[in-house]
Structure formats: structure tokens, C-alpha cells
Design a protein that fits this description.
binds S-adenosylmethionine, 22% strand, alpha/beta, Rossmann fold, globular
Length: 286
């Protein structure tokens, strides 16, 4: 699949997911964004850029930290995400927050515009992320930091999903997917430089960064039930998988996931999945 088709599919998926994105009672992106901001630790008065900001999982915690003298700019390729984030900014009267529709592969800012660049679960969607990240290094002030999250990939993991899903998603349901959306193709697209911390550090160093730190920590994903998880999965990147399944396979996968996720619950208690997340922090030279 060529890059522009891929990008427009990703944009369309997040545009149509935006109204319910991360708002169906499942906790995942919001706690992850808050934690990424803790790792990046923007200081009072700093200028922060959030790439692929979605509805603002990092934007608003960052705005709290930088305070009234700071600035947080959120960019996203999906217009509907930016509209939702802007509604939230208005509700919060967050007047140090600016939101813009922009392709994160081609950031359009003057050199030295930011002290911190963030990207939570968004860098993975950039078709050539290492090349894109190299464009962020000059946008940072001397000593400025880049911090982003990604899934923790392993060979047998379905991309984006915690290892438990390797067992729960039967491969035969995925055989009819267009080749570009099969798990093997997605693995290759997303994890080639992110899977191995040494590879990741080398890639970031080539992109102009130094002092790379990679910390894997679980985010406790909590959903009321298997059904709640499946409904929520349509509001995030997995929507791309659902979109590409034939109707009968989509229905089979839906039923299978609801049943097997409910089997992981302790009676009526919520479904809890400890989901490994990779937090990467790095800096440009002072
Ligand atoms: C999984 S969401 C994460 C959103 C947000 N950072 C959060 O943690 O909730 C991925 C986001 O990346 C955005 N995205 C994907 N490709 C992008 C691109 N080329 N440029 C900018 N944003 C992009 C999507 O529109 C989506 O909002």
C-alpha cells in the first residue's frame, strides 16, 4: 500500500472515531498520556508540542504543568480529533493550548520553537517515523526533550494489542484481510525500529537525539466487560482492523472476543488487562 493511501485510511479512521475516542468508559490512553507527561516532566513556562494529540491525553496534563506562562500546541492529522480537543480546551478555559490540523510527518514550525515534544501512541502511525523525528530535533531549544510511547512489540504479538490477544484472535479470521493489513505486514510496518531498545536508540541518535532512555511499564486497562472492550476497540487504532474484515469475520471476531474476554473476568468484576507500554525519552544537545 502506498504511503498516501495508508495515511488517508488512518486519517479517515481517526476522524470517524473521534467523537467516541477514549470516551467509552475504558481507561487506557488517558492514563498513558498522563504518565508520558510525568516522564517528560515539562517545567513551568516551557513550550510543549504534542504530535498526534488526539483529544488531548497529553495536552491537558502538560498545560497544567507549564502553567499560565507556558504553551502547549497539539497537532493531529485528523480534523475531528482537533475539533474534540478544542471543545475540551474551551470547557477548561485552557488558553495556553493551541490546536492545529497538521501532518506530523511535516511539522511546520520555526527552529527552536519548543522545549518538549511529545507523541503518545502516535509516532507509530507515521509512515516513516525515523525521518519524521529527525525533523523535530531542530524544532527543539538547546537541551530540549522528545518523549513518546509505543506498544511493546514481540514476535508473536498482534500489533498494538497486549500479548493475551495473540491467543484470543484466531489467525483464520484474519486470512481474508488485504495483505497490507495482515498482522505480519503491520508488525513490519510498526515495529522494525521500535522493538529492540538498542535499535531504537541508534535510530534516535541518527535522527539528532542523545541520552535515549527506554522504560517499559504497564498501563492498567480497565473495561466493564468484554463487550465494553470490543466497543472501545472501534474508537482507536484497532478500528482499522475492524474496517478491513468481511462482515461475517467481523461478527465472528466480535463474538469470540466478547466471550473470551469475559472469561478473563473474576465473576462480575471488571476486565483488567495489564498492557505493556514503552516510554521513550531523549534529548537534543544543550
Ligand atoms: C492512538 S491515537 C493517540 C492520540 C493521543 N496522543 C492519545 O494518547 O490519546 C493516534 C493519533 O495519531 C494521529 N495521527 C496518525 N497519523 C498522523 C500523522 N501523520 N500526523 C499527525 N497525527 C497523526 C491520529 O489521528 C490519532 O489522533
Amino acid at each position: 500500500m502506498d504511503t498516501s493511501t495508508y495515511k488517508s485510511e488512518v486519517t479517515a479512521a481517526f476522524n470517524s472515531a473521534a467523537a467516541s475516542y477514549d470516551r467509552l468508559g475504558v481507561e487506557f490512553f488517558t492514563p498513558m498520556g498522563r504518565r508520558l507527561v510525568e516522564h517528560a516532566a515539562p517545567r513551568e513556562g516551557e513550550r510543549v508540542l504534542d504530535v498526534g494529540c488526539g483529544r488531548g491525553a497529553c495536552v491537558f496534563p502538560a498545560a497544567e504543568r507549564v502553567g499560565p506562562k507556558g504553551l502547549v500546541v497539539g497537532i493531529d492529522v485528523a480534523e475531528a480529533m482537533i475539533e474534540e480537543a478544542a471543545k475540551e480546551a474551551a470547557l477548561r478555559r485552557a488558553d495556553t493550548v493551541e490546536l492545529r490540523v497538521m501532518d506530523g510527518e511535516h511539522p511546520d514550525f520555526a527552529p527552536g520553537s519548543f522545549d518538549v515534544v511529545l507523541g503518545s501512541y502516535s509516532v507509530i502511525f507515521l509512515p516513516d517515523a525515523p525521518a519524521a523525528l529527525a525533523r523535530y530535533a531542530p524544532l527543539l531549544s538547546p537541551g530540549g526533550r522528545l518523549a513518546f510511547t509505543s506498544p511493546v512489540f514481540s514476535d508473536d504479538t498482534f500489533p498494538f494489542l497486549p500479548p493475551v490477544f495473540t491467543e484470543l484472535i484466531p489467525r483464520e479470521l484474519l486470512l481474508d484481510l488485504p495483505s497490507a493489513w495482515r498482522p505480519e505486514a503491520l508488525q513490519q510496518r510498526f515495529n522494525s525500529w521500535l522493538a529492540d531498545p538498542a535499535d531504537l536508540a541508534r535510530t534516535l541518535e541518527r535522527a539528532g537525539f542523545q541520552d535515549v532512555s527506554v522504560v517499559d511499564e504497564p498501563v492498567r486497562l480497565v473495561a466493564e466487560s468484554g463487550l465494553a472492550w470490543v466497543d472501545w476497540s472501534h474508537t482507536q487504532g484497532m478500528r482499522l482492523l475492524w474496517n478491513h474484515l468481511a462482515d461475517d469475520k467481523r461478527q465472528q471476531l466480535r463474538e469470540r472476543l466478547i466471550t473470551s474476554l469475559d472469561a478473563l473476568r473474576d465473576g462480575e468484576s471488571p476486565l483488567v488487562i495489564e498492557t505493556p507500554v514503552r516510554y521513550v525519552t531523549t534529548a537534543v544537545g544543550a
